[in-house]
Amino acid sequence: MLVADRYRLDVAIGRGGMGEVWRGHDQVLGRPVAVKLMLAADSDPEAAARFRLEAQTAARLHHPQVVTVFDFGAWQDRFFLVMELVEGHSLAQELETLGPLPVDRVAAVAAQTAAGLAAAHRQGVIHRDIKPGNLIRGADDGVKIADFGIARFADDSSAALTGVGQIVGTSLYLAPERALGSAAGPGSDVYALGCVLYQLLVGEPPFQSDHAAAVLHQHVAAAPAPPSWRCPRLPGAFEEYLLRMLAKRPEERPAAQEVADWFATAVWQGAAAASVPAEAPASSAYAMPRTAAPAPTVYALPKTPAPAAGSRRAPAASGRRRSAKPGRQEGGDNLHLRVRALMRRHKVITIAVAGAVALVVSTLLSMAAIGPGN
To answer: Are 263 and 107 spatial neighbours (Cβ–Cβ below 8 Å)?
Structure first.
């Protein structure tokens, strides 16, 4: 199949609600390409507009971590989008095959994806659908962001809802402000990336439910469980920074460029105390503080100098009364403690005996006061 007399379609490599993706070949420039071929243009006007927006949005971006768009047009009443062909697989496929990833590989995904998002944000583009299925790992082990089909421009005044009142995006990775119906911003992409990193570490996103509405409620009202509970080898610095990315308020999350710079260094391997910048608000993270165990206190007995050889022991200060023997004194103390313990254990008997004694004493005092003469 030859599209627009230029792009030969070889084999379908993906299919979605709006169309299908083909591995193809650009016969003019002689290079492999990916061709996204939409369904009939007149079948769904909203989908057609979204497809066109994807082309316009992605065409503004030129970054190693973003899939490059080469061409866009119409052919036989169908829109097509020609993109860079990434030989690899999505992180969703990687999770399904391998399960949770090693911490260092997750840190690399964080740095690369955040760098691509920062480039998009500088152009005023919000992706709005960051998820494992839209992150492609290439043959060089690099990660690229794909599918800007529901992206929007930051200066677009349109609402976050579609015409039929549905939230655009995937509920498992939806930021709290978007769950409440507010427009997406750069912080929404950072939150979604935080959900993806959480899933790559533990194998599941931070919030799950059988009902999408329940997931949205959790995004708004529930704190995520610390990922170290499921990933014990996760450094404290990594965990605290990840929980900052999952902060409920957008202003408390780091910017995408800050995330990229932070994960590009070895800081994420450090101690938890070094992970949160000094200017970060205290409420921006839900991580449990990790404190070192206090050093044990050692009490030393005073040392008494040994008497000189041949010297006699000095007499006691009183000189007359000898001290009680240790065994007798210890026995007296133990008896006293046993009596008190018995009294505490048998409170009813103790109170009854005390009352009887008080009655007898009161009777004797009354008899003494009356006297035999009266």
So the answer is: yes
